[in-house]
From TrEMBL:
SUPFAM superfamilies in UniProt: Thioesterase/thiol ester dehydrase-isomerase
Xref: InterPro entries: HotDog_dom_sf, THEM6_lcsJ_thioesterase
UniProt-listed CDD domains: 4HBT
Protein's recorded name: Acyl-CoA thioesterase FadM
Pfam families registered for this protein in UniProt: 4HBT_2
Length: 180
């Protein structure tokens, strides 16, 4: 089950936190609960993505995104992601999630998140290709910028490895091969 109570708690904290700028880093703290574990007593890879949600959605709250989504009747979706796992997170470990926007193109906003253990080790990192949607499909970034009241006319240069990932995604066939 999705951790709605944890999300509500984090959204409540985000409401009382200072507003964020587009390139600020949102920091959130979490604990790996027993229901987040796999059979090896470590954070399940699917639940890792959910904990990243718990960092990313409150970041959007602090940036004014959630208000704009509600006002415009837009949705928010993940259109792609790439994750690197490096250190185990065990049951009851405390973790810090750092979330930040790293850039955008005409249709997508790219977000980088990392998960840090209390000993300073980075457990995992994810880059997400996110999109705002309406009844007609993807909302362009210029419309998003207008709704947020921010200048997004100049996209920052993405790190080379992120650009290469985007290129690789563009080469990937869709729909994928299917045995009939």
């Amino acid at each position: 089950m999705y951790p709605f109570f944890r999300l509500f708690k984090d959204m409540w904290k985000a409401r009382s936190a200072a507003p964020m700028g587009l390139f600020d880093t949102h920091i959130s703290h979490h604990m790996c609960m027993p229901w987040d574990l796999d059979m090896w007593n470590e954070l399940n890879n699917g639940r890792t993505l959910t904990l990243y949600d718990l960092g990313r959605i409150p970041m959007g709250q602090r940036m004014g995104l959630m208000e704009a989504l509600k006002r415009e009747r837009w949705g928010l979706t993940v259109a792609g992601s790439v994750v690197r796992y490096r250190r185990r997170v065990r049951g009851l470990d405390r973790i810090e999630v750092q979330s930040r926007v790293i850039g955008w193109d005409r249709r997508f906003v790219y977000i980088e998140q990392s998960m840090w253990k209390t000993n300073g080790d980075c457990s995992s990192q994810i880059v997400l290709r996110t999109a705002i949607t309406d009844a007609n499909g993807i909302v362009t970034v210029d419309r998003l910028a207008k709704a947020l009241g921010v200048d997004m006319s100049e996209a920052p240069e993405l790190p080379a490895w992120v650009s290469k990932w985007i290129e690789a995604e563009d080469l990937r066939p869709w729909p994928p091969h299917r045995e009939v």
